[in-house]
Amino acid sequence: MPKKPDSKCPDCGKPTAPEYRPFCSRGCKDRDLLNWLDEGYRIPGPAAALDNSERDENLGD
Description:
Layout: H1 26-37, H2 52-59
Keywords: Metal-binding, Zinc
Organism: Sphingomicrobium clamense
Subunit structure: Interacts with GyrB.
């Protein structure tokens, strides 16, 4: 059976660890999660239109 090529951590580029795949460590895994939770990752697309209730809430700021 052919050996799979070593994969790299998408966060830091080090070799991955089986227990944290596709990351190399718990730290890289947690940093990735924090980027998602803090909206650090975004998918490009057209701006979403606000409905009336969202527009009224934003006027109070």
